[in-house]
Design goal:
Elements: H1 2-8, E1 12-13, E2 35-36, E3 40-53, E4 59-63, E5 69-74, H2 79-83, E6 91-95, E7 98-99, H3 105-114, E8 119-132, E9 140-144, E10 149-150, H4 157-163, H5 173-176, E11 188-193, H6 203-208, E12 215-217, E13 229-233, H7 236-243
Parallel strand pairs: 1-4, 9-13
Antiparallel strand pairs: 2-3, 3-8, 4-5, 6-7, 6-8, 9-10, 11-12, 11-13
Length: 244
């Protein structure tokens, strides 16, 4: 009995905990780096590869919470350690032509035990990819009659103008403006250049500023481009003259 188990078992194993499905689960790809340094951004990616190994593998297998089986450890005495082709955390996708990507622990064991030597294993492996950092210039706001400077990507123009220390509201508008909810005309600015780098006008803006095509409500315009400059008049009084 011991001899038969040794010859049929392709690996050392740990019993699984959760049942798996037959559907291969997709692996999400992160678009943002998990780490960066002065030269590179680092991303976690998943790649599929095929390796050929002989029995015994010398791999400790464990069923994963997402379904399927992954390599928990590599031990002495097997082809996995001798060749270095199989790695910890590799997830088995296919064993000699049989899809095991969503199989249970017992099902994978049955396939491994019945497969002829050598085994052809398709696995999914997590890797780290580094890419040269591309430093993007911050958006820039140039205000006629006010303070200019860099702004944060995604910031609202009203916020950018106020944070620059430029005067946006004058006279009674300082007390009676709607507070940036797009219900008044107190924060109207004349966008002289770079309007395409802002979010499109809302329907309310289009209606409110129908006769002022170059103007925007500062509280409704958002910077959507990272490295573009926007030039504008900072005060409603100036804008009112320019757009009238």
């Amino acid at each position: 009995m011991l001899s038969m188990l040794a010859s049929c078992s392709a690996s050392w194993v740990l019993p699984g905990r959760l049942p798996g499905s037959r559907q291969r689960a997709g692996v999400p790809v992160a678009c943002t780096p998990f780490r960066s340094d002065d030269e590179f951004d680092y991303f976690r990616r998943t790649k599929e590869l095929t390796v050929e190994l002989t029995k015994p593998l010398g791999a400790v297998l464990e069923e994963t919470a997402a379904g399927g089986v992954a390599v928990e450890d590599i031990v002495d005495g097997g082809s996995a350690m001798a060749t270095g082709l199989l790695k910890k955390r590799d997830r088995l996708l296919d064993v000699s032509g049989t899809d095991v990507s969503g199989a249970s622990f017992d099902e994978v064991m049955e396939v491994l035990g019945g497969a002829e030597d050598p085994l052809t294993l398709s696995v999914s492996r997590g890797v780290i990819v580094k890419k040269k950092r591309v430093v993007q210039a911050a958006p820039y706001l140039t205000i006629e009659g006010g303070n200019s400077g860099e702004v944060m990507h995604g910031v609202i123009m009203r916020t950018a103008i106020q944070q620059s220390g430029s005067e946006l509201y004058r006279g009674m508008d300082k007390l009676t403006n709607c507070g940036g909810v797009g219900q008044c005309r107190a924060c109207v600015v004349d966008v002289l250049e770079g309007g395409e780098n802002l979010s499109p006008p809302t329907d309310a803006e289009k209606k409110m500023l129908a006769k002022r095509p170059s103007c925007r409500l500062a509280c409704q315009a958002i910077y959507i481009q990272r490295d573009r400059e926007v030039q504008a008049h900072a005060t409603c009084a100036t804008c009112a003259c320019a757009c009238a």
